[in-house]
Amino acid sequence: MRPLVFLARTGAQTIQEAYEAYRREFQRITAQARLRFEERDWKGGQRDAAERLALYRRFVENVVAELERILGEQLKDAPTWRRMKADFSESIEGFPDVELAETFFNSVTRRVFATVGVDPDIEFVDLDMRRDRYGPGSSIHRRHVRRGSTRAMVIEALAPHAFAAPFRDLEGDAGRVAAEIDATWAGAWNLRPFDSLDLIDAVFYRGSGAYLVGRLRGGDSILPLVLVLLHTDEGIEVDAVLLTERDVSIVFSFTRSHFLVAVEHPGDVIRFLHSIMPRKPLAELYISLGYSKHGKTEMYRDLLGHMQRSMDVFDHARGEEGMVMIVFDLRSYDYVFKVIRDRFAAPKNNTRADVEQRYRLVFQHDRAGRLIEAQEFEHLTFERRRFSPVLIQELATNATRSVVVDEQEVHIRHLYVERRIQPLNLYLSEASDGAAARVVEDYCQAIRDLAMMNIFPGDLLLKNFGVTRHGRVAFYDYDELSLVTECVFRDLPQAQSSDEELAAEPWFYVGEHDVFPEEFLPFLGLRPELRRVFLEAHGELLTAAFWRKLQERHAAGEVLDVLPYPDAKRLGRR
Fold first, then answer.
1. Distance (Å, rounded) from C-alpha 227 to C-alpha 211?
2. 263 in Cβ contact with 202 (< 8 Å)
3. Closest Cα partner for 258 from 216, 217, 287, 296?
4. Under a CB-based contact definition with an 8 Å cutoff, are residues 232 and 245 in contact?
5. Residue 375 half-sphere exposure, CB side, CA atoms within 13 Å?
6. Contact (Cβ atoms closer than 8 angstroms) between residue 183 and residue 163
7. How far apart are CA 260 and CA 268, in angstroms?
8. Distance, CA of 368 to CA of 455 (rounded, Å)
């Protein structure tokens, strides 16, 4: 048996080298986003985003295989791993992304040990995250002082972001942006003129857009600022300027795909983003930049901290009982927890593997601001006393493949965690007429946006959608989700006799993938005035022709994009 000290040092070095190789590959792919934008290579950007999502698992699996070779029979020797953790911690001190390196180490240990709960001896568990290690944050942005007009300051701020492609009308764009800034600042802080603009050096890329992220400052007052650049046939132009926490938060929403943004000090960028979106959880900010695994680490640490500060218990979440998932939450916490049932009630005929595959599809696909990203966890342990008796009974009876309940603890083998939003059916039952009408229109827009991204929800019932704190509708029930291009959209055949018209079951053949859009509306249960909203705003969703036309566009390889702001926010040139 080789000495523990040698094995631990070798193992720690192997994980460090694997992490640095992962980071280099992550940064290489991310850096390509600028070229994709300049060349309008949207398909290339899609490939890059998909490739980057797959990196983490590949590098973790490879390093685990290498450790099996190096450590041999001591692969699961706890003293060796305790020493490896200490050696690894020492070797990464001073890394600009030390928190991400620690999470990578944890991913390796959990893959080796299939750890139930958290083992602080062999994992990094630091609820305070030692944020003093991240530095002051001044290195990741540039300050532009307003010495003359706002327009001149905007031009100065845009200058360092010159692209290979030219701006179509930089002077005009700067003037329009300045007008928006002056009007919004005056409305928010009328007596306090702003004096500077902080702009993050790195550009945030996603889809067809490039986003410049910053904040306006005047004394102790700040306003968030996001400039959205699009590259059109005529050149690059500023398409929108976003100046409220709400609008910026939607850009960084948990329903959006990840940005590609090349940064050396992610912790500093996260701190900057949190200064303009203080209500946004740190986990979601990390995830929005593509650091999903560390986002999960932050989410879990936040949950543990919340449970230490609270006394309420896990119980069934509000809304109708799911046929595929058992959904529960802590009322004092803004997330829901989902475990897959052992058996699905009729008419569900899919399998557990089908459900897991659909959740993977959502993780990998462009979510168009309408699909909630679920974080997948394994091998978690909680105290039994933090669960209601009714929930304990259901988990122990109907989720035995995912949950083990003993006298003291609840062990969860497999779990999805999502941001909690209000179920749409409950929202409509409680909202005013005006609010209900606005949300139904957005529900229709959500279906349209998903279709643009080649996603068909499958089950359009209101209980499967929810409303965010910003009043936006998102979909969260994925067990029947499919690609638009996989469906067969058919016009409803006309009955040829009274017997056919009155038949309880369809008198015509219905294939496995057949969809009849004309049948959507009767099953939704909308009251008459809301049915009118649906028909007036988005009636074409009820026609097979609409869906077949979209199928043609997808089949032709057309790249469609759904911008994270309404047309009213655009600067008015289209």
1. 6
2. yes
3. 287
4. no
5. 25
6. no
7. 16
8. 10
> In this model, does residue 507 exceed pLDDT 90?
no
List the Cα angle 174/177/179 in 5-degree steps. Answer: 110
For the sheet with 465-467, list strands across it: 422-423, 465-467, 473-475
Counting beta carbons within 10 angstroms of the beta carbon of residue 406, is it exposed (0 to 12), middle (13 to 18) or buried (19 or more)? Answer: exposed
Q: Are 212 and 152 in contact (CB under 8 A)?
A: no
What is the pairing mode between strands 335-340 and 235-242? unpaired
96 DSSP 8-state letter:
T
Query: Which residue's entry shows tokens 């004309």?
Result: 518
**What distance in Å separates the CA atoms of residue 170 and residue 154, rounded to the nearest whole number?**
10
Q: Which residue has the higher pLDDT, 493 or 468?
A: 468
d(CA 457, CA 459): 6
Q: How far apart are CA 557 and CA 559, in angstroms?
A: 6
Structure-token match 């928006």, residue found: 180
447-465: average pLDDT: 95
Q: Which of 423, 374, 148, 139 is nearest to 254 (CA)?
A: 374
Look at the chain and count its residues.
574
Report the C-alpha gap between 152 and 49 in whole angstroms: 35
pLDDT digits (tens, 9 = 90+) for 32-51: 999 999 999 999 999 999 99
Q: How far apart, in Å, do the first and last CA atoms of the chain sit?
A: 72
